[in-house]
Every structure is written in structure tokens, then in C-alpha cells.
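Per reviewer request, we include the raw input and output of the structure prediction for the construct analysed in the revised manuscript.
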Amino acid sequence: QVQLVESGGGLVQAGGSLRLSCAASGRTFSSYIMAWFRQAPGKEREFVAVISWHGGSTRYADSVKGRFTISRDNAKNTVYLQMNSLKPEDTAVYYCAADQSSWRSGSYHSSPGNFDSWGHGTQVTVSS
């Protein structure tokens, strides 16, 4: 089992930047795919970004493409989400997720139901 703990959230002005971290502990498998999701009040949980630990493959939601960057440091069992040019609509609780799976094309990794392990989330608030 893998435990995930997010950090780095906070309050930032529009146009600013934040870097979120997700530290994995317990039994961490190199084949785990890591992802970020977010959920705003009254909305469903939505996909943000996903990365394969060793393959270096990434995929982003259209809404964050060009602004957010997902990366990982396998030696630290940590995945990051660098968020630049933040907008008020980015305000949400951001969740880290992990799943044992082979890397797939398409929308498979954008579905919350395909991830087994979740962190408790970190709040990101972007003011206008």
C-alpha cells in the first residue's frame, strides 16, 4: 500500500505560481503511475496531469496545458506539479493519486476511478 501526502498549496494572486508536492511512503512500486486531480466546490473531480515514474510520459488537461508541469523525483518518491500563470478558475483542492498500471494512451488516466490510492488534498486558492 502506498500513502500519499500533498503539500505546497496556499493563497496566490492571479498570474502567480505555486509548486505542489506529493510524497509517497510505504510500499512504492516503480510501475505506479502518478497523477494530479482537482475538485472545486460544487464540481466533480477533474483530471489535471499524469506522469509515468520511469517512462517520463506526461499528459495534461487542456485547461492547464502550457501552464502546469508535472515532474517526479523517484529517489525521493515524490511527484510535483509546477503551476504557473495561475487563474482564479484554478482554485480547488488538489489531490495526488497513484495506481499500478501500464501507461496507456487516450483518456484512461484522466478518470479518477482508475486510481486506487489518494492523498487528502491541498487547497489552492487563486485570488483576482
